[in-house]
Amino acid sequence: MPTRPTEILTGAQITVRLIERQGVQTLAGIPGGAILPIYDALSQSAQIRHVLARHEQGAGFIAQGMARATGMPAVCLASSGPGATNLLTAIADAKLDSVPLVAITGQVPRSMIGTDAFQEVDTYGLSIPITKHNYLVNSAEELLEVIPNAFRLAASGRPGPVLIDIPKDVQNEAIEVGAWPQPGNADEKLAPEAALISRAAALINQAERPILYLGGGVVHSGAAEAVVALAEKGGLPTVMTLMALGAMPVDHPLSLGMLGMHGARCTNLALDECDLLIAVGARFDDRATGKVAAFCAHAKIMHIDIDPSELDKIKTAHLGIAGDVNAVLRMLLPEIEPQLRVRWLSRVVCLKAEHPLRTPGIDDPRTHYGLIRAVADCLDDEACIVTDVGQHQMWVAQAYPLRRARQWLTSGGLGTMGFGLPAAIGAALAEPQRTVVCFTGDGSILMNVQEFVTAAEENVNVKIVLMNNASLGLVTQQQTMFYGGRIYASKFNAVPDFIRIAEGFGLRTVNLDDEDDPFAALGAALRSRGPMLIHASIEPHEKVLPMVPPGAANSEMIGG
Amino acid sequence: MNTALWTEDKALTRAVLELDVNNHAGVMSHVVGMFSRRAYNVEGILCMPVGSGATSRIWLLVNEEARLGQMQKQLEKLEDVLAVRRHEADHQVFERLEEFFR
Prior knowledge:
Shape of chain A: globular
Largest sheet of chain A: 6 strands, parallel
CATH class of chain B: Alpha Beta
CATH architecture of the largest domain in chain A: 3-Layer(aba) Sandwich
Helix content of chain B: 25-40%
Radius of gyration of chain B: 14 Å
Strand content of chain B: 25-35%
CATH class of the largest domain in chain A: Alpha Beta
Helix content of chain A: 25-40%
Strand order of the largest sheet of chain A: 3-2-4-5-7-6
Oligomer: heterodimer
Mean pLDDT of chain A: 97
Strand content of chain A: 15-25%
Number of helices of chain B: 4
């Protein structure tokens, strides 16, 4: 005798119900033939709001924006074939930056798989190397296991994207459902070995010139408070990767800001002198380390990461601790001896004074640094700062006073132009109370420009600050510096009228070039609600400096 | 070392990985893809279902390289890989299989 009433539901209805049970309120996607049963079921959901993107990559990045802003898995939907292939860039981006994403794609019916059917592509095969895990679902029954598992995997350990490919006949298959599975949540985090904690504390206590090196894992594990406490107690100068910006306020006295290719000279020089590098949730990316053999060459390496495969991957660690960063730091903290480290900290102060980050024009809002500073001056730390990829991204990373974990959303590992606008829309959907600023360039914005209309339709509070230099600036910069000045295919001879484009898509606009008082116009724009394009021309010859030439050691910086 | 016998030489340069995996379409792709996308050649592969067939065992014969430890850690991260064990090259499974290649 059944103990609870059963329902007859289709695979599509089960899918929607399971997503609802995960607590999802908003998801993004584009429908198409092979996912129509799920869309039909979605139309009956009172809980879920579907945001219609205008390109599947936009849907993927809208979901990423939601996930990056909140830390919770977010969902994107696409149909089979081109719908699925258009999602791939956003999925790969999520993999490299460890963003919890659940991508659901429709697939042709099982009987047609392998026949080169219309809009058939091997989504499962294509997504293997860019997902944490993926599924090709074989029956409606399987969905009851697969969907909660996908959410669990996306959020567990080192977060990442999970793809679920659901054939259309599985979406239409009706089965009897009695009991529902528990929603999938992140697994319990394994406690690190106590003996390793004591060894780590001893290394830190005995070091003379330690540096704390923070990566994106600090943000993912919610360890921002713990790292600041550790740095303050142990007297540890702290550097951050692009992904960790915001974990420690950049104006904290112990902060040395961003390290690596476009970090300040003082930051990279201090790393050169350290005798202990404490890597926390960082993966020794080549943009951070420069030539690896020369990176912190005289230092012992301590590496704390939730992913055991990161330990010893690039640099052999003298002490590797596999575990949740926040848990490890909280165990470590009581064993750290309070230290003033007068000699080392005064050396760092001296390096900062001698080799600071140079930001010419920062008081003039008509320059690139000045525009970034002016935006910051109009906002508080509650604002969310999103970027696209290129020179503007590096300038914002250098000059924006980021002070809050998850304040900063940027495509780090994959470096995807086109990330900014849809990710900003996602962040604004997830946290509508915030002002979301998307810094972008004239190259990047065109790569997902269609999402202007999604921003208008959803009336999200996104302010797009377009820094227009009519070129692919980082390419021009490298051609100028390393390819004999042969500028090729990186200057745009035809430049669109971005103001008219944005207005055509339904956005309000302001062109700072035409304003007598750009600061006042910027302030008024940022204080208004709703989506808006803020256009500003910048000098095409400006470079991101200093710069470590590709393949060189971080001590061999050019400029700045 | 210049007097090393062939078998000793082989023992120094080859390793055998033994994987317990879930048995469904796609698992082999996950496993071999991990090697192919890192340009790490797999010299030999053997796979058979175990017990009821819910799981399989995969044997991989690979060259012993410095990054083999990293490969093992990456394999352990795969959701469908339940366990990874590393053996020396003189493991019998491939030696006995050699009969079929004569």
